[in-house]
Amino acid sequence: MASRAARTKAGSGIGRARRPELRLPPPVPFEGGELEPDGDYDGLLFADVDFAGQDGGGARFMDCVLTGCALDETRLHHARLLDSVLTGLRGVGTDLGSATLRDVEVVDARLGGIQLHGAVLERVVVRGGKIDFLNLREARLKDVVFEGCVLVEPDFGGARLERVEFVDCVLKGADFHGVSLTDVDLRRAAQLDFARGVGGLAGAVISPAQLLDLAGAFAAEAGVRVVGLDG
What ranges does the record give for the region Disordered, renumbered to this chain (predicted)? Predict the structure, then answer.
């Protein structure tokens, strides 16, 4: 008997992203103090905590809830966020380079210049909010959904995306240069605007209306000039 994933792909022509199914135990309030490099945080509630400038590189967050936390210049390089919910995060220059996010929901984030280069995202939903200058260069995304959010100049250069969906979200000045795409669904994006890489969308699905909107960008990237007969 065909698997559910296989049936879904056969019915729609494209594999659908698997969303996280979180069943968190009641979290214990965080007692305060600064993040520790390689720290181990299990089943904690971080509510309105200011982590600005702190170093939690290599830390592990498991079954955690972070809500209303400030992450300005917070270092979380190589951190692991697992089975967790992140709500209302805000900050500029957060370093999550080479981090792992698995079974995570990110809700109503307000972030700028966040570094996720080389990161691994699996079964992640980014819902609502606005992220400026998101750096996902060389990252690996599998079963990821961007839903109802605004991404300003996101950089996916050299990243690998598999079963990634953009639903009711806005992409402004996106860089898809050198990406590898498998079952990437752009059809339900509210707005698509590419700075680079529109010609390398093999493996993605767009709607007929989007094709017309992007025709000029496709032509420009292919080096084709579009000139009227009276030009």
Answer: 1-34
